[in-house]
Structure prediction request, 579 residues.
Amino acid sequence: MFHIEINFMNTDQTQVQTQNLTDGMHIVVDALKRNGIDTIYGVVGIPVTDLARHAQEVGIRYIGFRHEQSAGNAAAISGFLTKKPGICLTVSAPGFLNGLTALANATINGFPMIQISGSSSRSIIDLQQGDYEGLDQMNVAKPFCKASYRINNPEDIAIGVARAIRAAVSGRPGGVYLDLTTALLSAPMDKDTAEKTMFTPIDPAPAYIPSDASINRALEIFASAKKPLVILGKGAAYAQADANIKTFIEKTGVPFLPMSMAKGLMPDDHSQSAAAARGFVLENADVVILIGARLNWLLSHGKGKHWNPDVKFIQLDIDASEFDSNRSIAAPIAGDIVSSMDLLVKGLNSHNIKIDQLWIDDIAKNKTVNDQKMADKLNTNPPLMNYYSALRGVKAVLDKQRDYYLVNEGANTLDDTRNVINMYEPRKRLDCGTWGVMGIGMGFAIGAAITTGKTVVSIHGDSAFGFSGMEVETVCRFKLPITMIVFNNGGIYKGDSPNLGGGTDPSPTTLMPDARYDKIIEAFGGQSYYVTTPDELTKALNEAIASKKPVLIDCKIDPSVGLESGHIGNLNPKTIVKD
Prediction:
């Protein structure tokens, strides 16, 4: 904190008092630092520029972005990786709104994040008198996050920061909005008085221990199963209950199916993985244990042709309101996953769990058939690369790597990469998650590189890359070890769609067919590659990772390949044309 000396004089011009003052901006920075915040992601401007400067001054790292949405995504993925709230700093109104998509996405996905935004004068906003970038931000944010707070007085800053942290990490984690008015940031306060307001919240994310009855009920149903299955969700990855999850799966011999961001929680090449037999196990499993996974659209809501109609569900979730959201849950376990898995593992000693070998054999047969189908796809050599031949070039490198993070976004690029590239360690595959939001790629890549210091490989479709591609400059400015691969087929889904009206304008899904994304990074001093064959891609990726520098690889893909909406074309309505 800075201090100002104010001399108060009596009528005899004799000094009677000296007072040390600080202000709201410095108190905010002090509160963040005392709560272990070591990094802020953001875009500065009125009225928060000096807040970022003072944060740097006291040793908090400030990562400046080109767009607030990417800064928010970086903060959110930092929260996922660390279980501590990532901080996104934005300016008022437009900057706040730019960050709001990332805040909402963090809440939907269960990532702890706090968006801190400067805001205009309350008196002008409340009377709608037309202030500079005037917006009632606290109330706008409420529907999109776990909690939304405004701090009006400097003596309440420590309380406001503590409440935001506790809301972000307790229960199901999520996004929190913290509104700092211009008046607050400049408000003076006695330094010693401000110091007395400071504190760190005790146990902001307390354990939520499930009942013994719920554990016993779950184990009894599990023991009765003939065709059981465990589904691992990103909530399981976030919880970091890795050892007990591994023990439970291996001790029982139960097959497991990882959701996208849970890949690597158990190695993808583990003998009990049923990922290559996904359709078969969902259609036939009679008991499914959901660990940190929700029965939402990603699992067809647990209904329909993709599921055994008689399946019984055991669900582990910290939020009891999640149970019975789409299907009746036979054995709900309400508690945090660390405590729940600890009790389940201990309970195995008193329950006879035996997996039917016919179930295991049937899964193995189905995996063998599907593995061969995937091998056939990967080993094709079309004149122009398709997604699978390109991913063969990527796989040749990444199968030999372990110490890297993979960020992935797009439609076909997302779906096919998820199916082809194996993960072997937890929390190292980062993608669009529950909402399927485009544009998370660069923010997640930067957040992962800053948070871990590790190499990041980010694989984007060309359309997805366009949402946040300007962050290439951020990557280069901070000299981050990120290799960006753009699968460039010149379009959204595919690049050769016609204009149905026969005009000269490109179709709604067509991008520039000869775009050269590799040239973007050259403008900022990074390394570029342009590749047209799997072997060229393998060579470029090996060199890029070894360099530990910013690299962008433009990977030319056949514009005629790609499915409409990737693997979820059923969600994209089509018109019915009649002759």
Q: What stands out?
A: Residues 1-9, 11-18 have pLDDT under 50 and may be disordered.
